[in-house]
TrEMBL record:
<feature type="binding site">
    <location>
        <begin position="44"/>
        <end position="45"/>
    </location>
    <ligand>
        <name>substrate</name>
    </ligand>
</feature>
<feature type="binding site">
    <location>
        <begin position="201"/>
        <end position="202"/>
    </location>
    <ligand>
        <name>substrate</name>
    </ligand>
</feature>
<keyword id="KW-0413">Isomerase</keyword>
<keyword id="KW-0573">Peptidoglycan synthesis</keyword>
<feature type="binding site">
    <location>
        <begin position="12"/>
        <end position="13"/>
    </location>
    <ligand>
        <name>substrate</name>
    </ligand>
</feature>
<feature type="binding site">
    <location>
        <begin position="78"/>
        <end position="79"/>
    </location>
    <ligand>
        <name>substrate</name>
    </ligand>
</feature>
<feature type="active site" description="Proton donor/acceptor">
    <location>
        <position position="77"/>
    </location>
</feature>
<dbReference type="GO" id="GO:0071555">
    <property type="term" value="P:cell wall organization"/>
</dbReference>
<dbReference type="InterPro" id="IPR004391">
    <property type="entry name" value="Glu_race"/>
</dbReference>
<dbReference type="GO" id="GO:0008881">
    <property type="term" value="F:glutamate racemase activity"/>
</dbReference>
<dbReference type="InterPro" id="IPR015942">
    <property type="entry name" value="Asp/Glu/hydantoin_racemase"/>
</dbReference>
<comment type="function">
    <text>Provides the (R)-glutamate required for cell wall biosynthesis.</text>
</comment>
<dbReference type="GO" id="GO:0009252">
    <property type="term" value="P:peptidoglycan biosynthetic process"/>
</dbReference>
<keyword id="KW-0961">Cell wall biogenesis/degradation</keyword>
<keyword id="KW-0133">Cell shape</keyword>
<protein>
    <recommendedName>
        <fullName>Glutamate racemase</fullName>
        <ecNumber>5.1.1.3</ecNumber>
    </recommendedName>
</protein>
<dbReference type="InterPro" id="IPR018187">
    <property type="entry name" value="Asp/Glu_racemase_AS_1"/>
</dbReference>
């Protein structure tokens, strides 16, 4: 049984969904959160394939329900949403679900030049959901789509290293430069892309490098804040919002972070990006995670 006091479950292939958790905590500061990073199996989006991502999403959703009695699950991963949200809705109709999708619609409404760049994982951009989204909103705007192999992995690995003195001298920056160049011309002139959709929750943590490459005028669009507002609406409708009248909880009681991969990497990402203490983090084994090999 869930109640307003039950936690919100948040899950990603790794640390990328922390960007969504950040927006959720901002929108819902009285809620409790249980975050699961499947870093032992990341990345999902380069070559894992739908069947693997579906199996992991199912196993993790079950784990969060059974071990933590979550009242709602936020799939803070575009790749897992694309591959598994319909399956999960059909298999667990009683679990309220919120997925994330690249911000194609907001970008189509805000672009002035009518050209928008989209960076996302190969898994996301080759999905039927993504094709539908682009077809639906692609009349007014031309979307330039770039699968970014290796970028989520490089961001994931960067958390195991010390904060770099020069963020542009990193593998993350090199990959950003390669993919930005492949997309084409950014700017405010006719035919140029004036907006960039960050279609993978990891890429928000490469914002600094992308900003350096693209300059101050290109609009970056992600879905953290809209997903957080949607989560509030769902909880409100279900009558399971936590009372917002009491004092704000301390971070240690409010957020529990778990990883199937390196605990130290999660602790350093949590501290670097969310200013959360190491004691919020722990290791977890969920299903046969690391026993399942990546697809070739
Ligand atoms: N953070 C994920 C997304 O939003 C997936 C990255 C990956 O594991 O490939 O797509």
């Amino acid at each position: 049984m869930t109640s307003p006091a039950s936690p919100i479950g948040v899950f990603d292939s790794g640390i990328g969904g922390l960007s969504v958790l950040q927006a959720l905590r901002h929108e819902l500061p009285h809620e409790r959160f249980v975050y699961l990073a499947d870093s032992g199996n990341a990345p999902y989006g380069d070559a894992r394939g739908d069947a693997f991502v579906q199996q992991r999403t199912r196993t993790i959703a079950r784990h969060l329900r059974e071990q933590h009695q979550i009242k709602v699950l936020v799939i803070a991963c575009n790749t897992a949403t694309a591959a598994a949200v319909d399956m999960l809705r059909a298999e667990m109709p009683e679990l309220p679900l919120i997925g994330v999708e690249p911000a194609i619609k907001p970008a189509s409404l805000s672009s002035q030049t009518g050209h928008v760049g989209v960076m996302a994982t190969r898994g996301t951009v080759s999905s039927a959901r993504f094709a539908r989204l682009v077809a639906e909103h692609g009349q007014r705007v031309q979307f330039h789509v770039q699968p970014c192999d290796g970028l989520a992995k490089a961001i994931e690995e960067s958390t195991e290293q010390p904060v770099p003195a020069d963020p542009m001298a990193t593998e993350v920056a090199q990959l950003c430069a390669r993919y930005v160049n492949a997309l084409g011309s950014f700017g405010q002139k006719t035919g140029e892309m004036d907006s960039l959709v960050l279609g993978c929750t990891h890429y928000i943590f490469a914002r600094e490098q992308l900003r350096t490459l693209l300059g101050p005028d290109i609009q970056f669009i992600d879905t953290g804040a809209p997903v957080a507002r949607q989560t509030r609406r769902v909880l409100d409708r279900l009558g399971t919002l936590t009372s917002e009248s009491g004092p704000l909880p301390a971070a240690e009681g409010q957020v529990q972070l778990m990883t199937t991969g390196s605990l130290q990497a999660l602790q350093s990402a949590a501290s670097r990006w969310l200013e959360l203490p190491a004691q919020c983090c722990s290791s977890v084994q969920v299903g046969e995670s690391s026993a399942v090999p990546a697809a070739a």
